[in-house]
């Protein structure tokens, strides 16, 4: 016979994992990043992932060596949070 309360106590005592949710690609048709938010983008011209930020004032994604319109980028993804020390 297993005591249900004892089993629940054991489950609650287990250490929780430091797990971050998996980010999903967001279509530019669904929504755009916040102003100057740093994100990953996919260019439909090259099908390559780039680091960029979004400038809502000019409706462009800006990278260190590229600029893309919202028609040239198909999807974007927020950057993951850095690890905690």
Low-confidence stretches: none
Strand content: 25-35%
Strand order of the biggest β-sheet: 1-6-2-3-4-5
Nearest-integer average pLDDT: 85
How many helix segments?
1
What's the overall geometry? elongated
The main β sheet shows up as: 6 strands, antiparallel
User: What is the straight-line distance between the termini?
Assistant: 43 Å
Calculate Rg over CA atoms.
20 Å
Total beta strands: 6
Q: Provide the succession of SSEs.
A: HEEEEEE
Structural class computed from helices and strand pairing: mainly beta
Helix coverage percent: 10-25%
Notes on the structure:
This protein is mostly beta strands and 85 residues long. The chain has one helix and six strands, in the order αββββββ. It has a six-stranded antiparallel sheet, with no helix packed on it. Strand 3 (48-55) and strand 4 (60-62) form a beta hairpin. The longest helix has 10 residues, at 4-13. It is elongated and about 60 Å long. The N and C termini lie far apart (43 Å). The model has no long low-confidence stretch (mean pLDDT 85).
Give a brief outline of the structure.
With 85 residues, this protein is mainly β.
Detail the topology: elements first, then pairings.
Layout: H1 4-13, E1 26-27, E2 38-43, E3 48-55, E4 60-62, E5 67-69, E6 73-78
What brief labels describe this structure?
1 helix; six-stranded antiparallel beta sheet; 85 residues
């Amino acid at each position: 016979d297993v005591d249900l309360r004892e089993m629940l106590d054991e489950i609650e005592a287990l250490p929780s994992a430091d797990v971050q949710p998996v980010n999903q690609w967001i279509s530019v048709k669904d929504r755009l990043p916040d102003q100057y938010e740093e994100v990953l983008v996919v260019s439909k011209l090259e099908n390559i992932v780039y680091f960029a930020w979004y400038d809502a004032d000019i409706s462009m994604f800006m990278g260190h060596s590229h600029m893309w319109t919202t028609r040239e980028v198909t999807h974007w993804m927020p950057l993951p949070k850095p690890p905690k020390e």
